[in-house]
Inverse folding.
């Protein structure tokens, strides 16, 4: 197998280009998710009837 290509499929050659984008999107999603859980929405406490817990 001396002359065999390193990538058997075109998707394998595209992974190095799309992987950093997927990582950046995942980091942004995690930051937004953590921020929403850390700071509840302003209207959320009035709908539930109880104030949010004190930090």
């Amino acid at each position: 197998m001396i002359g065999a290509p390193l990538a058997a499929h075109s998707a394998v050659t595209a992974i190095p280009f799309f992987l950093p984008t997927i990582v950046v999107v995942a980091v942004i999603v995690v930051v937004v998710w953590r921020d929403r859980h850390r700071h509840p929405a302003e209207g959320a406490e009035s709908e539930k009837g109880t104030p949010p817990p004190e930090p």
